[in-house]
Predict the 3D structure of the following.
Amino acid sequence: MAKTKELSKDVRDKIVDLHKAGMGYKTIAKQLGEKVTTVRLFANGRNTKELPRPGAPCKISPRGVAMIMRTVRNQPRTTREDLVNDLKAAGTIVTKKTIGNTVRREGLKSCSARKVPLLKKAHIHARLKFANEHLNDSEDNWVKVLWPDETKMELFGINSTRRVWRRRNAAYDPKNIIPTVKHGGGNIMLWGCFSAKGTGQLHRIKGTMDGAMYRHILGENLLPSARALKVGRGWVFQHDNDPKHTAKATKEWLKKKHIKVLEWPSQSPDLNPIENLWRQLKVRVAKHQPRNLNDLEKICKEEWDKIPPEMCANLVANYKKRLTSVMANKGFATKY
């Protein structure tokens, strides 16, 4: 039988107070999210005191726990082995398992650190400036924006991390494995764009893209996409600060075509909602298991066109949340 979670003294005291105020067991249970039987047990006040319990006492003193939590809060990358050594220097001998149990009991768990672009002070300042300047922009302003980007699609990309349901000792059953090849089986680079009205054209980039190729891609795909999506007059083009994008010739090309460009903070993929669509595309493509790069390109274009306009509209409608998150995180990277 699994162990039940012990109620804290605060919760037990709340039960007593609410019961004294005339509240019934069911009402108290619903308000505190506890079982009715639990509420009934503590409501009369006889069981609110800490009772002696069986088992070995905790090896780490409250002071030791406080030291551990202070360390991991200030330095989240601290390992269990580091904490074992810190306690050993203080005269307490424990195992890494004990350290792990202690930290989990305090509400923390070990997770993979998220990888995000390096942000220097100038980047953080620019991100905050962008968020402040556009926080109160109406949704109509974002509807006029055309969001582009490039992405890499690997032949065996998302498939390499898929999970399977299997029994013990069946890890190498052919049904439970993901075949791999060196270098991911090859990849293709794609350029795409979208607006609140849907996805634009998707273009495969062949070779190394320079400024001239980038301008050719814009000419062949950006303007037709803007017309097809009916973004209307006064639409705004967003692209990041890659040297190809900020080159003098590119700026002149955009000016000649009367395309207004949104000023953009560097190192800010979390502010570009097309990243969400790239993820959606990769999930969709992985289900098809393309056999070669040409097959991969074909499936990418088919699935890109199938992305519902409602998804695009929702990303744009919630854009203010991204700006709020940047400000709340003081300019650092956000969950987006």
In short: Strands lie at 145-154, 187-195, 198-205, 236-237, 260-261. The radius of gyration is 28 Å. The chain has three domains: 1-54, 62-105, 121-328.
